[in-house]
Amino acid sequence: MFGNRLGVGVLVAGFLGIAACAPQPAALEGYRAISDADGLLVLDAAGFKGVEPKRVTHVEPYQRQEYALFENPGGRAEIVLVRARHYYLDNVSLNFSLITSDVIGLWNAFKGKRLEVGEASRLGAGWTTFWMRPFKNSTDDQACMAFTADWDVHGEDELLRPDQALFGYYCAAPGRALAETAAEAIIDGIGVRGVNRRFRGKNPQLAMAPAAQQEPLARMARDGATGTASFPFNMAEVYSLHGEGCSGNDC
């Protein structure tokens, strides 16, 4: 009887040892392959309904971010969503300091192009407030706008930083105008599943893509005529809960 108990104990200890050595999903850092059903960013404005975007997700212990490219004959949008993760700590927020003029300069699509930038304005979308700034890509005769939004401010963070943020741009097809009402309709069509759209995904942990897929996924978000070389962004910071003066990951 004692021998049986010892055998079971050794077996359980062995399993626990394997589990302890195996990296947990939240501790892994890298790119994930993601289906459209598990994606968070939505653009369902007129002309984009039914358009399945190209998505790339990058996950770290303290932040998750998603890049999405929405494209059809009528226009193109690229959007990045960054979310603080609270798998280990609650006191993580985003150091989100991008303004709309900064956002314009992030994208490969506008590198070396002649741009005419207008004045920024605010637009309440009901679930959050957007900043939007019109600009023209004169090189390609495209009327565009850049936008930013953030929400879920951490009240315990003395800098009152957000938990989630998104930013990106939309350009109409070459030669087409972008009226103010059309720009507002694009903003109204932007959604985040689990925030202002329903989320029906089945893969919340987002298992790590195999090593051979890491570089191709990175190139989708970073290289070529679209994407941004700044992806993934480093925005998540741990803050002090007791005003002890520490900041960043030293807390």
Would you write up a description of this structure?
The protein has 251 residues and is α+β, with helices and mostly antiparallel strands. The chain is built from 4 helices and 13 strands. Helices cover 18% and strands 32% of the residues. Strands 1, 3, 4, 5, 7, 8, 9, 10 and 11 form a 9-stranded antiparallel beta sheet that branches. A two-stranded antiparallel ribbon has the order 2-12. The longest helix has 20 residues, at 2-21. The radius of gyration is 21 Å and the shape is globular.
Give a nutshell description of this structure.
By secondary structure, this protein is α+β, with helices and mostly antiparallel strands. It has four helices and 13 strands.
Question: Low-confidence spans: pLDDT under 50, at least 5 residues?
Answer: 1-22
Average pLDDT, rounded to a whole number, is 85
- Reading the helices and strands in chain order gives HEEEEEEHEEEEEHEHE
* Cα shape: globular
State the helical fraction: 10-25%
Termini distance? 51 Å
Note the main sheet: 9 strands, antiparallel
Oligomeric organization of the protein chains: single chain
Q: How many β strands by DSSP?
A: 13
- Based on secondary structure, the structural category is alpha+beta
How much is the radius of gyration in Å? 21 Å
Tell me the number of helical segments per DSSP (H or I, 4 or more residues long): 4
Strand content: 25-35%
